[in-house]
Amino acid sequence: MVRLVLFDIDGTLIRTGGAGVRAFERTFATEFRIPHATEGLSFSGRTDPSLVRECFCAHEVAPSTANFERFFDTYVFWLQHFLHELNGQACSGVVELIAAFQSVSPRPLLGLLTGNIRLGAEIKLRHYSLWDSFRSGTFGDDHEDRNKLAEIARARGSRLLGRKLTGTEILVIGDTPRDIACARAVNARVLAVGTGGHTCAQLREHKPDWLCATLDEVDVAEVCT
Question: Which one of 3.40.50.1000, 1.25.40.10, 3.30.530.20, 3.40.50.620 gives the CATH number of domain 4-16+89-224?
Fold first, then answer.
């Protein structure tokens, strides 16, 4: 029986119209005088700090604590700005799926497993009225390594539920191969969804337990048992 359900954010819960990428670009341009800093950078399934570190190293900016703080202090401002400027939305079936998980008995704990920094995740999900749906979360500022985040998420979920969770009691829902790999790091089950940057055919190659084109297709009774 699944006791903890962990959702990725970008491409799984929401599509922001590129607000996060635009905020990265504008922050590098305004704070570090680096134009086009994100060209050639793959955001899919990455943690925000690992992306910033890669850009710092590529442009010979010291990856110091002060520079990370400077980046993210400005990034969240631009993120909020671009969320209002661009046409994003919650992905198809998200609201209904959350409601379905909340209606089953026993009700699983719903959490986040994302490479976004915590404040960035909150800004995004509050914009789409989804933040309050989740009781737990693990974020990019918890660790730069996405797979390590799965271990932290399991530990936090275990504390909230009052007992140690096994891998089969955890379901990770995501839209990238990195989400699948992250789940496998703790032997969790995986539901892959084709609403992000990867097709269902590409995701199938990584052998998720379940695969759907959109979250409208999910049978909660099936994935919870």
Answer: 3.40.50.1000
